[in-house]
TrEMBL record:
Residues 1-205 form the Ubiquitin-like protease family profile domain. It comes from Folsomia candida. GO terms for biological process: proteolysis. InterPro entries: Papain-like_cys_pep_sf, Peptidase_C48_C. Pfam families: Peptidase_C48. Keywords: Hydrolase, Protease. This is Ubiquitin-like-specific protease ESD4.
């Protein structure tokens, strides 16, 4: 009976908080607390897609979350005032999205693939490492603060996936990249600062000083967290309200105090959720017999944390709008989700002039200083336009575009609009082909070639190397087969593109065996013929005797390679090879 009373008291306390949050006054949610604000606030302007949990990871001793690393890395780029066409950060999670539907929208379309550098953070087994991509020299470097903790094959798989993304987005061949791995980078001395080291490596590389990475102090790197967190808070409307709540304290002390509160709130939230799950999943009798120790420990944790300050400082905050029937404010909050505020304040609560939010793609905006900006139409990203008023091009390092800087007249090309995919036309000797999204690609300058042109030469790769381009029939039915000019058989396969619901034609090779209709796997043969014992020939002329089934890390079937090119009996040849070489898996 005593335990049942405890459960009732616990539920009453939870209901009191809920009723407090749902109290309404004049159609606007009013929640005042003499010790501060007890509910969660929105921090998505400073950490897109994140919340208090991600910001709490900046507390000392905690592992940075993926959202926190993304926000901090983007802030490092913004604070460095870099040209985003030459320095780019690929968010954590972009690789997973690409692996599902080959979506490359996270890569900027206007990236300078001749001179730019790209940064990406890889996660594996609770560890973060930094990948640095040098487009100018076609190199991929890895910076690991715990070298050897991630298997090399996992790093190579990540780099190969990056190369595939660049091939799909920028048409850069995957075999042009050189993979490097430095060994003389400073190592972390704790178990949690791997994300901090990724950000520190990135800061040094942005300065263009690869050699200075070795001078990083492992004791100093984790201490950079408060400065990063303070910068993020200053860029957020709720963050500024938190910092302004204690104006007498130094900004560093205010930031450390907020991180401690976020950490305690996360601990309290986790303990309360665990206790709720324990109560929901068990009956009262079972709790008394089997789960009393765990329940007592959780209740003790909740009591201990509650003795410290867990409420946010009193102030005016945006809060989550749930299913409470609260009327929405008429003014635009500038946040990425529906929101409410305790008290209406001026929406332009910023440190200076800002660009409009949620603008359409291509919209231009002039700032008070005269600079012009063009919207990308997503994630509130803007590109600076040339300072010359009538020039529509993007500015380079300075205030002018490359054409105006060199005294050239900008060439403006207007393509035909509302044309079907595949439509081709010629303008001043250059041929263009329409995409499904109404954009155009330049075609090869060779008259009868229908391949896309390379960016520099104006011709396609096939015409540059002298190879014949492979051309498949169009409008083929699913499962239709055809033989190309080289005698290779192909089978058509239909796939649906998730983003457009369009049917995409894919052609795959058929096994080289004339009587076989299976698809090719390796060596121009299907899996069935690869697994049959027999003799095959490698490209270098060596013979291969298939006497067993074995797969390497790349899942390529292999057998026994030997120098017996003329044999009468397969088993006898294999036996001779074993006796001579002493192994069967070479």
């Amino acid at each position: 009976m005593k335990n049942e009373e405890k459960l009732t008291n616990y539920n009453i306390q939870q209901d009191s908080i809920i009723h407090l949050l749902l109290r309404l006054k004049g159609g606007i949610l009013v929640t005042q607390h003499h010790e501060g604000v007890p509910f969660d606030v929105i921090l998505t302007r400073v950490i897109p897609g994140g919340d208090e949990i991600d910001f709490a990871s900046f507390y000392t001793g905690q592992l940075l979350t993926d959202t926190a690393i993304n926000a901090a890395a983007q802030q490092i780029l913004n604070d460095g005032n870099v040209d985003h066409r030459l320095r780019c950060y690929l968010p954590v999670g972009a690789m997973a999205i690409f692996g599902v539907d080959e979506n490359t929208d996270s890569l900027p379309a206007n990236l300078n693939i001749q001179r730019s550098q790209l940064f990406n953070v890889q996660h594996y087994n609770n560890h973060w490492i930094l990948h640095h991509v040098d487009f100018e020299n076609k190199k991929m470097r890895v910076f690991d603060s715990l070298q050897g903790s991630i298997p090399n094959i996992k790093i190579q798989q990540h780099q190969n996936q990056l190369a595939k993304m660049f091939q799909r987005r920028y048409r850069i061949e995957t075999n042009t990249w050189k993979y490097c791995r430095p060994t003389n980078v400073p190592q972390q001395i704790d178990s949690y600062s791997c994300g901090d080291f990724c950000l520190a490596y990135m800061q040094e590389l942005l300065r263009g000083e690869l050699g200075t990475i070795g001078s990083l102090n492992p004791h100093e790197v984790p201490k950079r967290r408060p400065n990063i967190a303070m910068g993020l808070l200053r860029n957020d409307v709720n963050g500024r309200a938190m910092l302004d709540a204690t104006p007498t304290a130094t900004p560093e002390n205010r930031t450390n105090s907020m991180l401690a509160i976020f950490h305690r709130r996360q601990q309290l939230r986790s303990a309360q959720n665990s206790l709720k799950i324990l109560i929901d999943e068990n009956n009262g009798d079972i709790i008394l017999q089997n789960s009393s120790d765990l329940r007592d420990a959780l209740e003790a944790t909740i009591r201990n944390i509650s003795t410290s300050v867990t409420n946010l400082p009193p102030g005016q905050y945006y809060i989550q709008s749930g299913q409470s029937g609260i009327a929405h404010t008429e003014t635009g909050s500038g946040l990425t989700q529906e929101s409410k505020r305790l008290k209406l304040v001026d929406d332009t609560d910023t440190s200076g002039p800002v660009k409009p939010r949620d603008s359409i793609k291509g919209h231009t905006h002039t700032m008070p200083d005269g600079s012009r900006w063009k919207s990308r139409g997503s994630k509130n990203q803007w590109d600076r336009l040339c300072i010359n008023k009538n020039c529509p091009r993007l500015a380079q390092k300075g205030h002018e575009c490359a054409s105006c800087e060199n005294g050239r007249v900008p060439i403006t090309l207007t393509h035909p609009r509302n044309k079907e995919e595949g439509f081709e036309y010629e303008d001043k000797g250059i041929r263009w082909r329409a995409r499904a999204n109404h954009k155009y690609d330049k075609l090869c300058s060779t008259k009868d070639c229908h391949n896309l042109a390379e960016s520099k030469s104006g011709t396609c790769r096939s015409c540059q190397t002298g190879r014949k381009g492979r051309k498949h029939p169009i409008n083929q039915q699913d499962g239709a087969e055809h033989t190309d000019q080289d005698g290779i058989r192909w089978r058509c396969h239909h796939s649906i593109e998730p983003s457009t619901d369009r049917v995409k034609l894919n052609f795959r090779r058929i096994c080289v065996s004339e009587e076989c209709n299976n698809l090719e796997s390796d060596f121009n043969m299907c899996w069935t013929h690869l697994r049959i014992c027999g003799i095959g020939f490698q490209p270098n002329g060596e013979s291969m005797i298939y006497i067993m089934i074995w797969s390497n890390l790349d899942n390529v079937p292999a057998g026994v390679v030997c120098l017996f090119t003329s044999i009468m009996e397969l088993s006898k040849a294999a036996e001779c090879h074993v006796q001579q070489q002493g192994c069967t898996d070479k």
